Amino acid sequence: MRRRFLTLDVFTRSRFAGNPLALVLDAQGLDTAAMQTIAREFSHPETVFVLPPENPANKACLRIFTPAAELPFAGHPTVGAAVGLARLSGGAAQQTFVLEEKIGPVTCVAQAHDAGSGQAVFELPRLPADVGQVPDVAAMARALSLSDSDIGGDYPPARWSAGVAYTFVSVRSLAAVARAKPDMATFEKVFGIGGPAMVYVMCTETAAPGHHLHARMFAPANGIAEDPATGSAVAAFAGLHAAHVKPGDGTHQLVIEQGYEMGRPSLMNLTITMAGGRLALASIGGDAIVVTEGTIEA
Q1: Residue 39 scores a pLDDT above 90
Q2: Burial of 208 by CB count in 10 Å (0-12 exposed, 13-18 middle, 19+ buried)?
Q3: Quick one: pLDDT at residue 92?
Q4: Is residue 46 among the annotated active site residues?
Q5: For range 66-90, the mean pLDDT
Q6: Average pLDDT over residues 268-297
């Protein structure tokens, strides 16, 4: 059966930058094994399958796969799917709708830039939580091919999750971020706590002015040697930032850059709202642009 698909580059306004995404439409009738096979065929960091929503008031139900596994939630698939589905709905007006993901309903606001691109913002369906201890500095440094003195910077090592758990490793400079590389002999042993290791290496020195964080994400056991932009990690980082920096009550905006070392620069906009000294609300937004359209036999 022929099924329509789009591919988009997400968290960018330029084709061949940002994070690639495949969006398979008309996915009814595909079982989990077939979806995983198609995700491996596309070999993008994530592939989204669009199904009819369980609640007819919602826009669609999404299932999200890396080349190796299904995810309950992910940021660049949510932004890319929102832009792609809004485009298919037609019109340039701002659209607000709910996408059903395994984590739960996700409220999105999408707006077209032109016929091939747009932007979307989604509210986090679950506020981030601290999910436990991290390895010692020496072990983390070895697993990332860094020296102990590289580890440090403005955030403590931590594990947070807003649906997908990440280990956050703050380093002291852009140069240290650039040198980071998973040591495959130790990476999963050190970071694979309760599942495949997903590690966000970051620093507050940035490649471009006006940005707040520079990052890379490694998840080789999930089929992602390196990810150009990781919205679910930014969602989890919202919790770490709120707990460690303790910004004042009100709304704060941060711009996170990622993918620069891969030649796929990406920008993610994180908005957090603090109330009573605690994180009350967070959203993630960014741009996306259509790259290809076609059909796949499946």
Answers
A1: yes
A2: exposed
A3: 84
A4: yes
A5: 97
A6: 98
Please tell me the distance from the alpha carbon of residue 280 to that of residue 29, in angstroms, as a whole number. 39
Name the CATH superfamily, with its identifier, for domain 129-285. Diaminopimelate Epimerase; Chain A, domain 1 (3.10.310.10)
Each residue's pLDDT tens digit, 96-148: 999 999 999 999 999 999 999 999 999 999 999 999 999 999 999 999 999 99
Average pLDDT of every residue of the chain = 97
Q: How far apart are the first and last CA of the chain?
A: 5
Neighbours of 189 (CB within 10 A): 12
Q: Which CATH class is domain 2-122+287-297?
A: alpha beta
Q: Which of 46, 100, 101, 226 is catalytic?
A: 46
Q: How far apart are CA 228 and CA 214, in angstroms?
A: 12
Q: Where in the chain is the domain with CATH 3.10.310.10?
A: 2-122+287-297, 129-285
Rounded CA-CA distance 73/106 in Å is 9
Could you tell me how many helices (H) and strands (E) the chain has, helices first? 6, 17
* Dihedral over alpha carbons 192, 284, 263, 35 (to 10 degrees): 60
Q: What is the pLDDT of residues 45-74, one digit of tens each?
A: 999 999 999 999 999 999 999 999 999 999
**C-alpha distances in angstroms, 64 versus 39, 68, 129, 135, 171?**
9, 11, 22, 29, 30
